[in-house]
């Protein structure tokens, strides 16, 4: 048995523990009362104090039409687990780590500060309130005096050392001054500099920039509308204020210089730099014309959110769909645009929005965004997502997605229209001619039923073209080996072209090399010259460098075109159809899959017949049927139209 003094200490500890638990659980209901109207919001009034002083604040309700001067806060939500105690409206309340750091960073020493921050101003436990407040974000950020951007950086403690953030800001100012000396415009200038002509940065500058631009803030989806809608915004970094202008200039100049991007040495930092440049361009748009949500999603693909449903909801405030949503709510009617609803699962949210994108665009471009880079079949939990984009573990929910719904939370859009490294316009694919999209009402939420033509069946598939960074020389080897396999199987081509030409055109998904060639006169001969140079390069000895250099000028494909081809072939495989056509299709395809032309689609698609429905495997490029040839055969009565229920 414990001594009496130990038992007493144990009882006191238990009482303190129970008190903490009580103070953490009671306030949520007591702190928040239902908002009086659909145009009501809450604002925080923060009492002054030093950084380490206890946080004391009040929450007040205001109507959007009668708001006092206030600032809005943009930050990274992070782990929402309540860990830090504050006093709000005189009551104890627990908040998460990131919002605690944000409040301490923006607190003024000698005067109060009024601001809006979502973690406190929205009752996060009330899903209905969350769903409605999402629609007010445009008003909240556009009516604020300015937005305080709080990067996810812990404040420095040792003031005697030069903080890395100071070095990062020095680098930003150096790039901005260099840009001004070179008379570079405040947009993408198109000027190309080698790293030796770039701003004179030292290694410590690049290291600090890498750390700064790797901050999670640049990759979050909510910050897009928060910054674009704000009349003014500044960065709060280590309790110091930074202006947007020099940071934006630095982002624009680095994005234009591939060698400078390489100096960053971090995918997260490169993403941050690109996002900073994109945000600045949207902020500079004086008209701030609302864009379709689908287009905004394409511009800011890969943005992240703590709650994945916010990948859609967080962009509503700058989309043209917002007035339609507001009208549907005012009329109390359901409409074509899905309403924000945090009671829906993430899977259902994406299904509804993807269906809306298809119906509103009257096209099937979104079907081209379903390919995910990895090994195996995406509808299996055994699928291995390559770490080419970011760390992510494939889940049962990911595997359960309908095959026609892109996984918007994974930056793995490998559309034939977008992959590759050339600054070229998308090709004018029109496999379904000028026929519009035809949809039939689907019997299930997870299915969509377009009309189209079943044209052919896959009879052979080649090796998957994986990125070179994972498998050394895999792409070059696969290019040559696939060609040898196809050339052995096909002696002629259905449209009268040569097999060499058909393969070379398919490898680049129809994009022809722009440079004139000296010794060749067709895409197929260019390709064969490149294969010959590759064979020679693989046998390099001390006696062959001169021969290799001499052959370099006549390789057929230049380096830029080869990079473009690799981009188009990434995570795809070549295939042959029963009618003898050559195509480039998604990696999960297999023999027996169907080649279909769906009305409203720019490319043919690979479908798989599964019992009473079909699965979308992905888009494909097939030489000879990309310009309405299949539709003309259908119009001549040689093929028939049918409905495809795709799940």
Average pLDDT, rounded to a whole number, is 83
- Helix/sheet category: alpha+beta
Shape: globular
Instruction: Tell me the strand order in the biggest sheet.
Output: 5-4-2-1-6-3-7-8-9
Terminal Cα separation, in Å?
66 Å
Unreliable stretches: 17-27, 419-425, 544-549
C-alpha-based Rg, rounded? 29 Å
**Treating each run of at least 4 consecutive H or I residues as one helix, how many helices?**
23
Write the layout of secondary structure elements.
Blueprint: H1 4-25, H2 27-31, E1 40-46, E2 56-63, E3 71-74, E4 84-88, E5 91-95, H3 97-106, E6 113-116, H4 118-121, H5 127-133, H6 137-143, E7 147-150, H7 164-181, H8 203-213, H9 222-229, E8 233-237, E9 240-243, H10 244-255, H11 258-264, H12 267-284, H13 293-299, H14 310-313, H15 322-331, H16 346-361, E10 374-375, E11 384-385, H17 396-399, E12 439-440, E13 449-465, H18 474-489, H19 499-507, H20 523-537, H21 545-552, H22 559-569, E14 572-577, E15 582-586, E16 594-598, E17 605-610, E18 613-619, E19 621-622, H23 629-635, E20 641-643
Parallel strand pairs: 2-4, 3-6, 3-7, 7-8
Antiparallel strand pairs: 1-2, 1-6, 4-5, 8-9, 10-11, 12-13, 13-14, 13-16, 13-20, 14-15, 15-19, 16-17, 17-18
Helix pairs in contact: 6-9, 7-8, 7-10, 8-12, 9-12, 10-12, 18-19, 19-20
Pfam families: HET, Het-6_barrel
Protein name: Heterokaryon incompatibility domain-containing protein
InterPro entries: HET (IPR010730), HetReg/Transcr_Mod (IPR052895)
């Amino acid at each position: 048995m414990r001594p009496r003094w130990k038992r007493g200490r144990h009882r006191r500890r238990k009482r303190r523990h129970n008190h903490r638990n009580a103070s953490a659980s009671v306030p949520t209901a007591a702190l928040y009362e239902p908002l009086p109207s659909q145009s009501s919001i809450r604002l925080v009034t923060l009492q002054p104090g030093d950084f380490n002083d206890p946080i004391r604040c009040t929450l007040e309700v205001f109507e959007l039409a009668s708001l006092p001067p206030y600032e809005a806060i943009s930050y990274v939500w992070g782990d929402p687990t309540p860990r830090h105690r504050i006093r709000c409206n005189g009551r104890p309340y627990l908040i998460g780590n990131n919002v605690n750091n944000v409040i301490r960073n923006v607190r003024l020493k000698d005067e109060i500060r009024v601001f809006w921050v979502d973690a406190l101003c929205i009752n996060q436990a009330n899903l209905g309130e969350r769903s409605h407040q999402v629609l007010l974000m445009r008003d909240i950020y556009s009516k604020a005096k300015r937005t305080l951007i709080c990067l996810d950086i812990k404040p420095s403690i040792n003031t005697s050392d030069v903080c890395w953030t100071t070095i990062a800001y020095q680098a930003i100012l150096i790039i901005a001054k260099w840009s001004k000396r070179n008379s570079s415009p405040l947009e993408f200038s198109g000027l190309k500099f080698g790293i030796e002509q770039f701003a004179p940065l030292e290694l410590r500058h690049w290291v600090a920039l890498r750390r700064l631009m790797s901050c999670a803030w640049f990759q979050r989806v909510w910050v897009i509308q928060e910054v674009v809608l704000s009349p003014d915004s500044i960065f709060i970094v280590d309790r110091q204020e930074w202006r947007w202008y020099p940071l934006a200039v630095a982002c624009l100049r680095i994005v234009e210089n591939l060698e400078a991007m390489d100096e960053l040495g971090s995918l997260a930092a490169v993403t941050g730099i690109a996002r900073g440049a994109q945000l600045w361009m949207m902020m500079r748009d004086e008209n701030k014309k609302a864009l379709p949500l689908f287009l905004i999603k394409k511009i800011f693909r890969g943005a992240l959110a703590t709650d994945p449903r916010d990948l859609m909801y967080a962009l509503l405030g700058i989309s043209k769909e917002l007035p339609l949503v507001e009208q549907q709510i005012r009329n109390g009617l359901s409409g074509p645009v899905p309403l924000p609803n945090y009671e829906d699962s993430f899977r259902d949210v994406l299904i509804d929005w993807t269906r809306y994108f298809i119906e509103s665009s009257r096209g099937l471009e979104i079907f081209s965004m379903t390919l995910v880079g990895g090994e195996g079949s995406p509808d299996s939990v055994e699928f291995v997502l390559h770490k080419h984009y970011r760390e992510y573990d494939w889940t049962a929910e990911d595997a359960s997605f309908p095959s026609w719904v892109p996984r918007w939370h994974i930056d793995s859009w490998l559309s034939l229209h977008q992959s590759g490294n050339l600054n070229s316009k998308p090709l004018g694919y029109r496999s379904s001619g000028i026929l519009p999209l035809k949809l039939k009402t689907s019997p299930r939420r997870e299915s969509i039923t377009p009309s189209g033509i079943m044209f052919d069946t896959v009879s052979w598939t080649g090796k998957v073209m994986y990125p070179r960074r994972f498998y050394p020389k895999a792409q070059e080897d696969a290019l040559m080996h696939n060609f040898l396999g196809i050339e052995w199987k096909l002696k002629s081509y259905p449209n009268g072209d040569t097999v060499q030409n058909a393969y070379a055109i398919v490898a680049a998904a129809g994009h022809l090399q722009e440079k004139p060639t000296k010794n060749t006169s067709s895409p197929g001969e260019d390709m064969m010259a490149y294969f010959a140079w590759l064979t020679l390069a693989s046998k390099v000895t001390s006696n062959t460098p001169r021969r290799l250099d001499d052959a370099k000028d006549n390789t057929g494909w230049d380096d830029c075109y080869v990079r473009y081809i690799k981009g188009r072939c990434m995570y795809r495989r070549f295939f042959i159809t029963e009618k003898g056509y050559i195509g480039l299709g998604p990696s999960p395809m297999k023999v027996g899959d169907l080649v279909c032309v769906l009305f409203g689609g720019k490319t043919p698609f690979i479908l798989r017949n599964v019992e009473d429905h079909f699965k979308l495997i992905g888009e494909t490029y097939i030489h000879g049927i990309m310009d309405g040839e299949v539709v003309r055969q259908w119009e001549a009565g040689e093929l028939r139209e049918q409905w495809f229920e795709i799940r």
